[in-house]
Amino acid sequence: MDDGRAHPLLAQIPLTVSPFVSLPKATTLPYTYKSLPSTLPPSSTGEGSEEEKPRYVISQSGHAAHPDEIIASCQALQAHLKKMQKDAEATLQKWQDDIKERELAEKRRVAPGWLDREEKILEPQRRQPSQGQGNSAQENIMDMQDGGGPPERSLTQEGEELDRAFGGIQLK
């Protein structure tokens, strides 16, 4: 359509006009219409008088930035990550403290007063020998049995008790 003539192939196609289709009409512009220039002049009010830094670092996606802008965004990202890590550590510490508190409450419920004392390991106290008794009276308490006799005698009594309970078993 360079010269106002249709292409020879397009001229061969018959066109039909449909009464249901109306083509849009061209708008008329007022006589006072002026088109805007492609570049705007600098502001006369002084706003934006600060020169923008040239954006010569261009990414693969087409985003352009100045190195100072990149450094500022990296520092902001780093500060955000540190804040998130600090919040996560605080949440984790609170969670661990809550677990310890629950365990401590359970232990206090099972054995009240045990955790509130300084001495944690129970040790038997040794008897102080009285003035009138000699060294022969100091026998080990663990060697004594319920009857207070020596251990050999108690072993035979235990055997007799087992025989009475289960019946006598004779070895052949």
What does this protein look like?
The chain has 172 residues and is an all-alpha fold. It is 37% helix and 2% strand. The protein contains 3 helices and 2 strands. A two-stranded antiparallel sheet has the order 1-2. A hairpin with a 5-residue loop joins strand 1 and strand 2. The longest helix has 44 residues, at 67-110. It is elongated, with a radius of gyration of 51 Å. It starts with 7 loop residues before the first helix and ends in a 6-residue tail after the last helix.
Walk me through the topology.
Layout: H1 8-11, E1 57-58, E2 64-65, H2 67-110, H3 151-166
Antiparallel strand pairs: 1-2
Keywords:
172 residues, mainly alpha, 3 helices
Parts with pLDDT < 50 across at least 5 consecutive residues:
none
Number of strands: 2
Helical content stands at 25-40%
Q: What structural class results from the helix and strand content?
A: mainly alpha
Please summarize the sheet with the most strands: 2 strands, antiparallel
State Rg.
51 Å
**Roughly what fraction of the amino acids lie in strands?**
under 5%
Helix count? 3
* H and E string: HEEHH
Terminal Cα span: 130 Å
Overall mean pLDDT score? 77
Oligomer: single chain
Q: State the shape.
A: elongated
Q: Widest sheet: strand order? A: 1-2
